[in-house]
Input
Amino acid sequence: MPFATSPHVKEEKPGTVAYCTCGESAKAPYCDGSHGRNRSMKRPIIVKIEEAKTVAWCGCGKSGNAPYCDGTHSKG
Ligand code: FES
Output
């Protein structure tokens, strides 16, 4: 799945999340291993979620605060 033009807003539970940085995951914003199959040099960012919360994951791949959305997608 190519990068999106808006953030992926998700309800996250405590645990570990692998955020896709290659833009090829079919399960964006989560890594599905596509980076390995596509021989991308990019790797997921591993994020530990301490408590249940809403997260705006970057969908455009250009955030200066990756893996989180910083509004860059709307600065076109
Ligand atoms: S599938 Fe994109 S970083 Fe793993």
About this structure: The chain has one helix and four strands. The chain has a mean pLDDT of 94. The radius of gyration is 12 Å. Strands lie at 8-12, 15-19, 45-49, 53-57.
